[in-house]
Specification:
- By secondary structure, the chain is α+β, with helices and mostly antiparallel strands.
- The protein has two domains: 232 residues, Rossmann fold (3-Layer(aba) Sandwich), CATH 3.40.50.300; 116 residues, OB fold (Dihydrolipoamide Acetyltransferase, E2P), CATH 2.40.50.140.
- The chain has eight helices and 20 strands.
- The strands form four sheets. It has a six-stranded mixed sheet with strand order 6-7-8-3-9-10, with helices on both faces. The chain has a five-stranded antiparallel sheet with strand order 13-12-11-14-20. Strands 15-19-16-17-18 form a five-stranded antiparallel sheet, with no helix packed on it.
- It is elongated and about 75 Å long.
- The chain starts with a strand and ends with a strand.
- Bound molecules: adenosine-5'-diphosphate and magnesium ion.
- The site of adenosine-5'-diphosphate (ADP) has 10 residues, from helix 1.
- This is ABC transporter ATP-binding protein.
- One of its GO terms (cellular component) is ATP-binding cassette (ABC) transporter complex.
- Belongs to the ABC transporter superfamily.
- GO terms for molecular function: ATP binding; ATP hydrolysis activity; transmembrane transporter activity.
Length: 355
């Protein structure tokens, strides 16, 4: 079942159109992320779902009901920001119980629900603590409990971990994922952090300049990037662009000194211009076996990343290719001459344009 759908939604502030005809469909119980660089329109999109902004055109549907003009407090949504607005003078229990008290629920019911929710966010026993005594991560978990206790159909989260240190971010990412699974509530999660979106989401939408460039599972987005923006925003990649030559049952593309043998030859036509994305970890350095593609290069830069090493390899026309290899105590040295190789099936075919 569809929890939230956006149909041709647009938003302008004055003459600036910041959300440009977005179509999205988020399933019930899904962890769905909006991922994109700062300023691409993620927050504006989320605020329209929450009811804090009205779309300039298009429809926002929640569980099949048109929501465009429904006020915030009448929507089955709850919003969590990076800066959690907890009530500083109330303790943990009272913060979480706040919304339930507004609904005049019985004391015993409130206690049970708050207790259950504090357990979900691993804060049982913290009921009487002042929220000012808590760490940033604990405060954010109180904010999550306070939102979830109202049993929203959809929880909207806008970069909720952005203010925390990296270690805590990683822990809360896993915890949020677990909370989402155990409650079954639909989450729409806004982030500019690509690894966060890839780890947490069932599906994600990659946004750029007010548009959705691609919607898919993390694996689809990474392995089958639909546009050059997606391929280069998600991790690192090498973009190779050139004209295809088809000869008998082989297709090749030439891009300066790179002659790439292409997979799925039947997809290509002689003379068409195409773009490939070649992930750094798919390129072998001095491969033991012959590969479909080979090119000479010189090591220009060696960056030790921990589990892997990222090389910048200079090819004959001066361009740099990213190549990533498992860490090795004896890496290739700057200036070393190497041969790079890759098999045709690892390049992601992005687009083709006729010339
Ligand atoms: P993101 O969350 O992806 O960083 P936003 O949705 O916050 O992006 O902003 C998208 C664009 O809309 C930005 O250029 C921002 O400056 C502009 N914008 C956001 N809110 C307003 C507003 N209330 N008035 C005018 N411009 C706005
Ligand atoms: Mg934002």
């Amino acid at each position: 079942m569809t929890a939230v759908s956006l149909n041709a939604v647009e938003k302008s502030f004055g003459s600036a159109k910041v959300v440009k005809s977005i179509n999205l469909s988020v399933n019930q119980g899904e962890f769905f992320s909006l991922l994109g660089p700062s300023g691409c329109g993620k927050t504006t999109t989320l605020r329209m779902i929450a009811g804090l902004e009205t779309p300039t055109s298009g429809d926002i549907m929640i569980r099949g009901v048109r929501m465009n003009t429904v006020p915030i407090n009448r929507r089955p949504t709850n919003l969590i920001f990076q800066k959690h607005a907890l009530f500083p003078h109330l303790n943990v229990f009272e913060n979480v119980a706040f919304g339930l008290k507004l609904k005049s629920m019985k004391r015993a019911v409130i206690e049970r629900k708050v207790g259950e929710m504090l357990e979900v966010v691993s804060l049982s026993g913290f009921e009487k603590r002042s929220v000012n005594e808590l760490s940033g991560g604990q405060q954010q978990r109180v904010a999550i409990a306070r939102a979830l206790v109202n049993e929203p159909a959809v929880l909207l989260l806008d970069e909720p971990l952005g203010a925390l240190d990296l270690k805590l971010q990683l822990r809360l990412q896993r915890e949020l994922r677990r909370i989402q699974r155990s409650t079954g509530i639909t989450f729409i999660y806004v982030t500019h952090n690509q690894s966060e979106a890839l780890t947490m989401s069932d599906r994600l939408a990659v946004m750029n300049d007010g548009r959705v460039e691609q919607v898919g599972t993390p694996a689809e987005i990474y392995l089958k990037s639909a546009t050059s923006f997606v391929a280069s925003f998600i991790g690192r990649t090498n973009l190779i662009e050139g004209v295809v030559e088809v000869e008998a049952d082989t297709a090749r593309m030439t891009d300066g000194p790179i002659i790439a043998v292409l997979d799925e030859v039947e997809r290509f036509q002689n003379g068409e211009r195409t773009l490939l994305s070649l992930r750094p970890e798919r390129i072998a350095i001095n491969p033991a076996q012959k590969m479909d593609n080979a090119i000479d290069a010189t090591v220009a830069e060696v960056e030790f990343l921990g589990s892997t090493i990222l090389y910048r390899m200079r090819i004959a026309d001066g361009r740099l290719l990213f190549v990533q290899a498992l860490a090795d105590s004896n890496p290739y040295a700057e200036g070393a001459s190497v041969q790079l190789g890759w098999n045709r099936d690892v390049a992601i075919f992005i687009r083709s344009t006729s010339i």
